[in-house]
Amino acid sequence: xxxxxxxxxxxxxxxxxxxxxxxxxxxxxxxxxxxxxxxxxxxxxxxxxxxxxxxxxxxxxxxxxxxxxxxxxxxxxxxxxxxxxxxxxxxxxxxxxxxxxxxxxxxxxxxxxxxxxxxxxxxxxxxxxxxxxxxxxxxxxxxxxxxxxxxxxxxxxxxxxxxxxxxxxxxxxxxxxxxxxxxxxxxxxxxxxxxxxxxxxxxxxxxxxxxxxxxxxxxxxxxxxxxxxxxxxxxxxxxxxxxxxxxxxxxxxxxxxxxxxxxxxxxxxxxxxxxxxxxxxx
Length: 282
Known about the structure:
Rossmann fold, 5-stranded parallel beta sheet, alpha/beta
């Protein structure tokens, strides 16, 4: 945690920025990113932006408010329902006969990216992105959406580590005046979800993070082969799927914001894959 705080402070100061802005969904990743920023720069230099949609839960909206209050940071609320509905209306004829799919999900993420970049342009704030290493590895992010920004604070932090760091933050901070933890307990306990469609859960698109992250560590950080990873007791189909996702997502990572490094091998300079020529990595 201290490394992430130090890295954020150094990068922001050395690039000439004074203030940052974070899209705060009420999920664990944006929550941890905002907390790191507040500790690195002071709460007066951090603005959080909640951009709820028709799929945002009341719990997530409440969690975002609770965190902002605990951290002492400003919270702006910019609902995206209006622009989302307007975009769907414009695309209605072009999409005729097509069922809703990931296109509509990505559209929401990109609308949020447009709004937060507008704030950045207007006020000179550096945008901090909130994707973790598990998402960056597998491509479970939206290009020009939630990847939009100037510094990827937790880009090298696997999802399971995100939870451990969040619990550490609460252990160090102790009980808050509200009676709960600095990071609301509900943020840590609820199933992770992008909330871009009804009843969405990350694990429905990927797999449980406690199964995903060890495979990613073996492949990305330790450079293990398919057979070596399977020999550790992992299902071969799972390993093949993860390795395929990682190699296919390289084109996204090449367009990501620079990020902080806390593991032996981070994406970008340390770990890169070919994009073309049907490269699979195994």
